[in-house]
Amino acid sequence: MKHFYLLITFLCISFSYGQETQSNGDIKGFKLYPNPATNGKVYISTSENSPKQISIYDVLGTQVLETKITGNELNLYDLDAGVYVLRVYQNNKVATRKLIVK
Length: 102
Fold this sequence. Notes:
Helix content is 14%, strand content 41%. The protein is mainly beta. The strands form two sheets. Strands 4-3-6-7 form a four-stranded antiparallel β-sheet, with no helix packed on it.
């Protein structure tokens, strides 16, 4: 039952975020594409092209990937198909999005 509540909470939070940057302190110009990811990689672009710290969590809140990228390409080959939460840290700002891997 606890997993059900976590899933409902995750879905409510993820629907409140869009794929484009919002004006609530997100990273300026943040874009995540393609989403859903079908070829094992996604691209993360921002207005500033500085290094990004990436954390990915499954629907139960377990961190499944943590990495740092200097470009805009993120490999997802190690992730199973499913729904994840992607969190990007760049220059003391953070952006959180729902990520779907097919």
